[in-house]
Design brief:
Largest sheet: 5 strands, mixed
Strand content: 15-25%
CATH topology of the largest domain: Nucleotidyltransferase, domain 5
Number of strands: 15
Mean pLDDT: 90
Structural class: alpha/beta
CATH class of the largest domain: Alpha Beta
Number of helices: 14
CATH superfamily of the largest domain: ATPase, nucleotide binding domain
Strand order of the largest sheet: 6-5-4-7-10
Low-confidence stretches: 1-11
CATH architecture of the largest domain: 2-Layer Sandwich
Helix content: 40-55%
Shape: globular
Order of helices and strands: HEHHEEEEEHEEEHEHEEEHHHHEHHEHH
Number of domains: 3
Amino acid sequence: MISETHFFKKGDNSFLKKVNEKRLLYIIYKNRPISRVDLSREASMSKAAVSEIVNRFCDVGLLLEVGKGQSTSKGGKRPTLIKLNPNRGYVFGLEIRRSETIISLANIDGELLYTSVIEYDIASPITTVLQRIIEEMKTIMTLKNIPYNHLIAIGIGVPGQINYEDGNLLVADTLKNWAHKPFATVFSENFNVPVILENDVNTIALGEYLYGAGKEDNDLICIAIGDGIGAGIIQNSSLVKGVHGAAGEIGYIEYIQSANKTLKYIGNGHSIYGDILSEKNLYKSFQNTLSSGEPTTFFDQSRFLEYLSFADMGNKQACEILNEYAYVLGSLCLMMQKTLDPGLIVLNGFVVENSPYLLKHVHDEVKKSLKNIPITFHPEIVVGDLKMEGGVRGAIAMALQTLFNPNDENSFLEHLVSEIQ
């Protein structure tokens, strides 16, 4: 996700030095462990320049020497291998949801060290929720004995349209009354590190692209189903955000119902994909059809899982409900396929993760519709590998990126640089 081509500031030697340092760190991170000779070759830098930077970072413990590599075909001394010291720097990845937040601590290698989930009431004020999150993060740092100056950055995935310049939410449909309120600054003031705010579905897409089902693909779409539905788009290994940061807001697309395919079970008066395909609407449809008593007003996940399993066991009405759901979800997948032609579509969310019946029928609907299109498509549609970890994994990757991007100011690296000057 990090380009190795940078724009240089003419005559700015300190910036050029920072570029070289961060570029070498990224190559080491990507190819760990690696020898100084291979690092010099990969970076197109002189061996002397590479050794000078590597030795300085070894002196302060950011890099470790971890054994010997293979000697060349000509023989000779085996090269010393180096890697980032996983215990020298840490990041937090957060996924903030309507009624809970997942908080994960990872080391500089991206390895998850600790995960905590805090819960709160729906529609809780932003100040209350953020304060609870910060308190939990500080508790985790104390528990893991991590000094504050070892924290590199914080990545946060949150539902809504992001104001990237100010670090807050422009639109917060899921998190009522959170828009235009201080957000990223609340974390940066508490921890004095860069804070990267991103749409939650984009962080899930990044997580699956880097660590999950999309590791082998440079072009993919991740469709996440929860309170609504959204898409994270990766094209040519880059996250597509759009001019206004609203790329992938597919939940607001109007669903056009065909005359010969009415939605008997899951329509419920809804007109857009996000409402029709939401977990809440599917749960309500199951309740209305399969429950003998009065529908409950709360969402019971164990009961929802039972409803989904009915279809796998052949229950006629449960199958009919999921057939409708598969038809609508399949039409959305096909729309994405025809518009962007990705190599992979990754589905994320409790519904698709727990219903083999649904996944099969989504495949069937897409395959059936493709027969009527005079263009060759070979869409691969899979369920994501990371499940609940997807969002925090993507947030962790964004936080680590600040260590390698020369345009990002980072007090962690600046502190190290001050130690070796």
